[in-house]
Amino acid sequence: MKFRKRPVVIEAIQFETNNEVGDVNMNHVVGWINRNGAKSRHDGTDIYIETLEGEMRASCGDWIIKGVKGEFYPCKPDIFEATYEPVREE
Length: 90
Fold this sequence. Notes:
The protein is built from two helices and six strands, in the order E-H-E-E-E-E-E-H. The protein has 90 residues and is an alpha+beta fold. The strands form two sheets. It has a three-stranded antiparallel beta sheet with strand order 1-5-6. It has a three-stranded antiparallel beta sheet with strand order 2-3-4, with helices on one face. A hairpin with a 2-residue loop joins strand 3 and strand 4. It is globular, with a radius of gyration of 14 Å.
């Protein structure tokens, strides 16, 4: 059998830099996750997110996805681009 992924709209931001400069630095990403009810932290290089499967690590360049049930998890850029496309907001 073959299956097609249902179209769902998610929120996501790309972890662009581990420096203090830049709009999407690690402090911004960790704050976004924590303000939305999940737990995350960083070590100055990577971001660690508490997920249902345990703690997951996000490296610079990874996308952080807020799923349909409010869960957060990292996604590698190539997988993200193959799976998601931008939604035009009305």
